């Protein structure tokens, strides 16, 4: 685990630059799905819980944004570039799915797509179907909600545990995760099963704690959740981790753009 973390930090540091910013402005196109359930049932594995992440303002992103699942739950501010049709503020979306489109960086829920439009222009933007956009990564904010884990129904005591990460704040990605019995320093690694779902077949007995490596600044950092699952944990239940993630991971932008809309 230590070797992995060192290698991970080396990659982050070697890819950063003096012009790195909190967030970079990107230009692409966006389309939409008429049914938001197609996005909530997507590759991240959030299912119906996705609708509670950003009020139905959901997005599928290309593989460079999905990042093999590490991008699940990331928040973006996105606006279309037609000033006569769209507002200057745009809308914020949460990434919940992967798109294989070679035309757009995003496929949005219809609610999020309409939200980019000026008042009264929602149907007009829907008729276009695809629009030029600019977007930036922004921190996710869950003011009254800590990081949480949901025990998946596929979990089977005593040997197999699958959990889904929810309400990951800040502008971060979880890149590694360990599990241990509360009070023990004997950590076992967990693997990303898919999207926001992590699992292990080496489940300690008793109450369980987790630790995470998240992207932060130009590096990674450990975050400990010291008492999360009780010894009698149950499938289908969401447990509060008791920690908030508020860190900001830097991007290397060329040219540097600190996230201000032009």
UniProtKB/TrEMBL annotation:
Pfam entry (one): Expansin_C
InterPro entries linked: Expan_Lol_pI (IPR007118), Expansin/allergen_DPBB_dom (IPR007112), Expansin_CBD (IPR007117), Expansin_CBD_sf (IPR036749), LolPI (IPR005795), RlpA-like_DPBB (IPR009009), RlpA-like_sf (IPR036908)
Stretch forming the signal peptide: 1-18
SUPFAM superfamilies per UniProt: Barwin-like endoglucanases, PHL pollen allergen
GO CC term, one of those recorded: plant-type cell wall
Domain Expansin-like CBD: 159-241
Entry keywords, A to Z: Secreted, Signal
Ranges of residues in domain Expansin-like EG45: 41-145
Subcellular location as annotated: Secreted
Family matches, as CDD domains: DPBB_EXLA_N
Record-linked Gene3D superfamilies: Expansin, cellulose-binding-like domain, RlpA-like domain
GO biological process per UniProt: anatomical structure morphogenesis
Family membership noted in the UniProt record: Belongs to the expansin family.
Name of the protein in its database record: Expansin-like A1
Originating species: Hibiscus syriacus
């Amino acid at each position: 685990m230590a070797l992995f973390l060192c290698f991970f930090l080396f990659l982050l540091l070697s890819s950063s630059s003096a012009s790195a910013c909190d967030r970079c402005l990107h230009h692409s196109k966006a389309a939409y799905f008429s049914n938001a359930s197609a996005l909530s049932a997507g590759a991240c594995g959030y299912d119906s819980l996705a609708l509670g992440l950003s009020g139905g303002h959901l997005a599928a992103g290309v593989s460079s944004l999905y990042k093999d699942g590490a991008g699940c739950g990331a928040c973006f501010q996105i606006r279309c570039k037609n000033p006569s049709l769209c507002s200057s503020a745009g809308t914020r979306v949460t990434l919940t799915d992967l798109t294989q489109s070679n035309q757009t960086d995003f496929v949005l829920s219809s609610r999020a797509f309409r939200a980019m439009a000026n008042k009264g222009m929602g149907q007009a933007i829907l008729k276009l179907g695809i629009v030029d956009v600019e977007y930036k990564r922004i921190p996710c904010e869950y003011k009254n909600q800590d990081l949480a884990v949901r025990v998946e129904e596929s979990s089977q005591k005593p040997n197999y545990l699958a959990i889904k990460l929810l309400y990951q704040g800040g502008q971060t990605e979880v890149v590694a995760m360990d599990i241990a019995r509360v009070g023990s320093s004997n950590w076992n690694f967990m693997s990303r099963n898919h999207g926001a779902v992590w699992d292990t077949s080496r489940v300690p007995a008793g109450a369980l704690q987790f630790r995470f490596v998240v992207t932060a600044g130009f590096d990674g950092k450990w975050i400990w959740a010291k008492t999360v699952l009780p010894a009698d944990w149950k499938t289908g239940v969401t447990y509060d981790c008791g920690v908030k993630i508020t860190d900001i991971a830097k991007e290397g932008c060329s040219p540097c753009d600190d996230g201000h809309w032009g």
